[in-house]
Amino acid sequence: MIRIGIVGYGNLARGAECAISQNADMELVAVFTRRDPQSVKIATADVPVLSFADVNDWQDKIDVMLLCGGSATDLPEMTPEFVKKFNVIDSFDNHANIPVHFKNVDDAAKEADHIALISSGWDPGLFSVNRLYATAILPKGENYTFWGKGVSQGHSDAVRRIPGVLDCRQYTIPVPEAMERVRSGENPALTTREKHTRYCYVVAADGADKEEIRNAIVTMPNYFADYDTTVEFISAERMAAEHAGLPHGGSVIRSGVTGWNEENKQTIEYKLTLDSNPQFTASVLVACARAVYRMYNRGIRGCQTIFDIAPGDLSASSREEIIAHML
Amino acid sequence: MIRIGIVGYGNLARGAECAISQNADMELVAVFTRRDPQSVKIATADVPVLSFADVNDWQDKIDVMLLCGGSATDLPEMTPEFVKKFNVIDSFDNHANIPVHFKNVDDAAKEADHIALISSGWDPGLFSVNRLYATAILPKGENYTFWGKGVSQGHSDAVRRIPGVLDCRQYTIPVPEAMERVRSGENPALTTREKHTRYCYVVAADGADKEEIRNAIVTMPNYFADYDTTVEFISAERMAAEHAGLPHGGSVIRSGVTGWNEENKQTIEYKLTLDSNPQFTASVLVACARAVYRMYNRGIRGCQTIFDIAPGDLSASSREEIIAHML
User: Fold this and answer.
1) Statement to judge: residues B155 and B290 lie in one domain
2) B171-205 tens-digit pLDDT
3) What is the ipTM of this complex?
4) What is the helix (H) or strand (E) element at residue B198, kind and residue range?
5) In this structure, are B256 and B139 located in the same domain?
6) Most CB atoms within 10 A, among A241, A248, A285, B314?
7) B4: distance to nearest CA of chain A, Å?
8) Which of A18, A102, A264 sits opposite B279 (nearest CB)?
9) What is the domain-level CATH number for residue B232?
10) What is the span of the domain harbouring residue B71?
11) What is the rounded CA–CA span in Å between residue A238 and residue B309?
């Protein structure tokens, strides 16, 4: 059995707890929280909830620790710190800062003789690995990534910070015409506005100026100003009834050409349609825990990414079984 | 530069020759043929075409040999034989016989201290690796593979062997309703007939009995009897004008569930749309040659599959570049 620990107990951690239960070769052995452990009730029976102060006692009892913190402030500190004591996996998703995070984690992991896998999940993660496969196979071509339809938690949070907004759910929606142009092999140059639209369901406080809120949203730099954004005000009841889930998904498409005159179009598309973004992301982390465990046992140390994982190491089945039944 | 040799000079080999030209870190150094080398004219200037008898002279001059023979009779003999002298890659695609082929190649490769990659391409190959990723991530679910729309060369050949048939192009076509049921997360049990239809364009000899040909096709065991097959007779001119290409493609779909009550549907789809099946398959082999070269230099020996290749080894870019720009 691969012994898994979880740090944090938000949506991602709860998804990981459930994903571990779907894998017969793994067991959850402990959850660590910054909150009062007494206040955190987890779904698995007989697994302790502990405080960060207790982690030292668990170094020999956990094979891989899943770090389920946020990328903005938690993981840049947490991953280099925890890798001093454990093999770790995180889902650091701030693309621009990945090289710095990699270096910090790599130094700490090598110093401690551990292995760390950073930026696991679906983007970064499965989408990254599909960009890489497709680019290696079709060197002449273009990559396109479309996200959605799905809830962006960062954008929803940004709207919630506007005065007069009680709640928001922001959906990122790919533009169907743009996707069709890409799939046709046209290799279009697409602006930000041409690729995605944004749709905000907003619960406003009584008496709030809705036009002012709408204007604050659609002109918000970085988040909305470069997009066509629709704002719809709804009741708190409707928000609870219709927008409780966290669906997401998207497509990575590479449109390439082969042939001496580049006469043949070749298109590779990888598409995710997810009812629950955090549960799916957690499922990727949990499959990666198996690979990290095996790589550690083969003597691999330092910071790794999904690019370093041979796919066979993710599978619960033996090498003979996957050759006979999946190849 | 990675020095590549090619064995054979059919459609796949010609695709590989062209794919090598798209990769700046590789060069084609020789083509080996069973035919009279004088009779084979290749597209690349200043690269020799040699007979099988000459291979011994090239052991120190070729890093990876691409074996572009057929799976029925060529590769079962060719791969274990060539791996005695070279690192090799083949596209062995007879799924049921892969374990036996693996064993034969593995024994010969280890004996000769070489590395072999078998069953590369897209199915087996990219489709296999997507079945594996998706199954590891979503342990609760079903895999579905749809092929086409595209030309099946095996089925076209089978029809050509019927008396009175001068030429045939057989298209395998996935049933759209079946694909939609799978994509919706319904997890249907689908019969062979429900998943694909077959469409044959046939050029008949003058005076041939077309009804007899049609009947011979649609009742042919293994190839057509389990499918709804349409036969259309066309002229040799129309065949040449409209069916000269070898398009293909298909989708691997895993439809899984997560959540304590399996309440969330999660769908992963990997889809290929290919103008030229042999050029695309060859492009996969050529990218894999880079990985095989690197794995050999790290001391890896014996028979490998795409499950053993860490994705980063396929990329022409450095580890730092792919972490910064693709993750």
Assistant:
1) no
2) 999 999 999 999 999 999 999 999 999 999 999 99
3) 0.96
4) strand B196-204
5) yes
6) A285
7) 16
8) A264
9) 3.30.360.10
10) 2-122+278-325
11) 49
Q: pLDDT > 90: what percent of chain B?
A: 99
Which structure tokens are listed for A31?
């959850």
**B153 and B29 inside one domain:** no
Distant-in-sequence, close-in-space partners of A299: CB < 8 Å, separation ≥ 6: none
| CA-to-CA dists, residue A51 to A3, A56, A61, angstroms | 18, 11, 16
| Residue B89 C-alpha, separation from nearest chain A C-alpha, in angstroms | 15
User: Judging by DSSP bridges, how do beta strands B2-7 and B64-67 pair with one another?
Assistant: parallel
Beta-carbon count within 10 A of A66 CB? 31
> Residue A49 and residue A32: Cα distance in Å, rounded?
6
Read off the tokens for B59.
Answer: 């052991």
Question: CB-CB: which of B124, B264, B323 is closest to A327?
Answer: B124
Task: Give yes or no: residues A100 and A130 share one domain.
Answer: no
Give the residue among B3, B44, B48 at the shortest CA–CA distance from B25.
B3
Q: How far apart are CA B113 and CA B109, in angstroms?
A: 6
CATH number, position B61: 3.40.50.720
CA distances from A285 to A23, A60, A131, B131 (A): 12, 21, 19, 18
Report CB contact under 8 Å: B320, A269.
Answer: no
Contact across the interface for B279 and A269, Cβ inside 8 Å: no
Total domains in chain B come to 2
Cα nearest neighbour of B255 on chain A? A273
Contacts of A250 in chain B (CB under 8 A): none
Q: Are residues B201 and B251 in the same domain?
A: yes
Q: Are residues A136 and A270 in the same domain?
A: yes
**Nearest 5°: phi and psi at B74?**
-70, -60
Shortest Cα–Cα distance, B23 to chain A (Å): 7
Work out the angle at residue B112's Cα, subtended by the Cα atoms of residues B106 and B117, and round it to the nearest 5 degrees. Answer: 40
Q: Average of pLDDT values for B157-184?
A: 96
Which residues, numbered 84 to 123 in chain A, qualify as contacts with chain B under a Cβ-Cβ cut-off of 8 Å? 95, 98-99, 102, 119
Name the nearest CA neighbour of B231 among B217, B221, B219, B245: B217
DSSP A126-195: HHHHHHHHHHHH-SSEEEEEEE-SEE-HHHHHHHHTSTTEEEEEEEEEE-HHHHHHHHTT------HHHH
Best of A105, A258, A303 to disrupt the B interface by mutation (most B CBs within 10 Å)? A258
Tell me the C-alpha distance between A40 and B117, whole Å: 50
Contacts of A119 in chain B (CB under 8 A): 327
What is the C-alpha separation between A5 and A60, in angstroms, rounded?
12
| Per-residue pLDDT reduced to its tens digit, A154-187 | 899 999 999 999 999 999 999 999 999 999 999 9
